[in-house]
Specification:
Blueprint lengths: L16 E6 L10 E2 L5 E2 L3 H16 L2 E6 L13 H12 L5 E4 L3 H6 L2 H7 L11 E6 L2 E5 L15 H13 L27 H16 L3 E6 L17 H8 L5 E6 L6 E4 L5 E4 L12 E7 L3 E8 L4 E4 L3
Parallel strand pairs: 1-4, 4-5, 7-8, 8-9, 9-11
Antiparallel strand pairs: 1-12, 2-3, 6-7, 10-11, 12-13, 13-14
Length: 320
C-alpha cells in the first residue's frame, strides 16, 4: 500500500468491498487565497490532489466506486469560467476506473444552478433534487442526502424552496449578513446562508429507505456534504435540521456511519446511538506537496479508512 498512514488491513480478512473518498476540492484557476477565518487555500493545487487520488484509486484496482463529498469548484471561480472549471474537475474524476458518486455542496451551487450541475455530475434527480441511494453489495446500502434541498442557493430566486430558506434564515439569524454567526450561540451558529436543510419530502424518503434497508438486513452508510453531528464538526458547518435527520436515522439500527465534508477539518465522533460520524479534510487546503484523500475498506463489523497525507487512518467499529 502506497502512502497510507498508520492502519493497514493486514488482518488476513479481505474487505467486502472498498471505495475511494475525497472532499472539498474547490478548484479554481485563480491565485491562492485565504478562507474567511484566514486559513490558506490552494485553488490551483487542489486539482493535482485529485489527480493523485485518482492515480492511487486506480493503482488499488479493487475499488468498487469513489465518493466525492461535494464542493468540486470554488465560489471565487469567475462565473464565466464555471462550466470549464466544473468540466475540468469532472474529467479528472472520469479517469478513475469506476463509478464516481457525487453530491452537491454550496460552492458547486455558487457556480451553477442545479439544472445544469446535476447532469454534469450524473446525479440521479427528480424535480431538481439530488438525493439518491445505491447498493454496492446485497449487505450494504449507501444513502446520499441533498443537504441543500431547502436552500437560499442553487434554486431559482422565486422557487418555493428558496423562499422557505430565506424565511427560515430571517427567523433564525438576526444579522444583516446571513453568513455571519455573530450573536448566535452553540449549535444555533449553523443558521447561515452557506448551509441548508433536508426538506419534508426527503425526510419521508429517508425514512422509507431505512425501513427497506432494515427489512433487507442491510447496513447503511449515509453521505452528506454537511455534517450531521456537533461532535464531529464546528457548529457553523452543521446541516440546519441535523437533529431532524438524526431523529429519522435513530429510529432504525441499520445506519452505521455518516460521512461528510464542508467543515474542511478532520472530525470523528460516535453519537449516543453508536453511529460513527466522520468529517473529512479539504483537498483545497493542502499546501503543494501534500494530499487529503483515501479509500475505505468495508467489512461486516467496521469501515476501515486508509488515509493519505492530511487524512488520518482510522477504524470505525460497530455492532452487527
Amino acid at each position: 500500500m502506497d502512502s497510507v498512514n498508520g492502519l493497514t488491513s493486514l488482518r488476513g480478512k479481505k474487505p467486502l468491498f472498498s471505495f475511494g473518498i475525497i472532499s472539498d476540492i474547490q478548484y479554481a484557476d485563480i491565485p491562492d487565497g485565504l478562507s474567511f477565518l484566514g486559513v490558506p487555500r490552494y485553488y490551483r493545487h487542489s486539482i493535482a490532489v485529485l489527480q493523485r487520488a485518482v492515480k492511487q484509486w486506480n493503482h488499488h484496482r479493487n475499488l468498487k466506486f469513489a465518493v466525492n463529498l461535494g464542493d468540486i469548484v470554488d465560489g471565487f471561480c469567475p462565473k464565466e469560467h464555471s462550466l470549464d472549471s466544473v468540466s475540468r474537475v469532472v474529467n479528472e474524476f472520469e479517469k478513475f476506473n469506476g463509478l464516481v458518486r457525487h453530491m452537491i455542496g454550496n460552492h458547486c451551487l455558487y457556480n451553477m444552478p442545479r439544472s445544469k450541475l446535476l447532469p454534469l455530475l450524473k446525479i440521479p434527480s427528480i424535480d431538481g433534487c439530488a438525493y439518491y441511494d445505491f447498493s454496492p453489495t446485497s449487505g450494504y446500502r449507501f444513502v446520499v442526502l441533498d443537504g441543500y434541498d431547502i436552500s437560499a442557493i442553487g434554486w431559482p430566486e422565486d422557487h418555493p424552496k428558496t423562499q422557505q430558506a430565506l424565511k427560515f434564515l430571517q427567523d433564525k439569524n438576526p444579522n444583516s449578513d446571513k453568513n455571519s454567526p455573530d450573536g448566535l450561540v452553540g449549535t444555533e451558529r449553523r443558521f447561515l446562508m452557506f448551509n441548508g436543510a433536508v426538506g419534508e419530502e426527503q425526510l419521508r424518503w429517508l425514512d422509507s429507505v431505512l425501513c427497506d434497508a432494515t427489512n433487507l438486513k442491510q447496513k447503511v452508510v449515509v453521505c452528506c456534504h454537511l455534517p450531521l453531528d456537533p461532535g464531529a464538526s464546528t457548529e457553523e458547518s452543521l446541516l440546519w435540521n441535523f437533529d431532524e435527520v438524526m431523529g429519522v436515522i435513530h429510529k432504525y439500527n441499520c445506519v452505521k456511519v455518516c460521512l461528510a465534508g464542508h467543515d474542511h477539518k478532520d472530525g470523528h465522533s460516535i453519537d449516543s446511538h453508536g453511529v460513527h460520524h466522520k468529517v473529512f479534510e479539504a483537498a483545497l487546503e493542502c499546501p503543494p506537496g501534500t494530499d487529503a484523500f483515501g479509500y475505505i475498506d468495508v467489512y461486516d463489523d467496521r469501515l476501515s479508512l486508509c488515509g493519505t497525507g492530511r487524512i488520518e487512518s482510522c477504524d470505525m467499529h460497530f455492532n452487527h
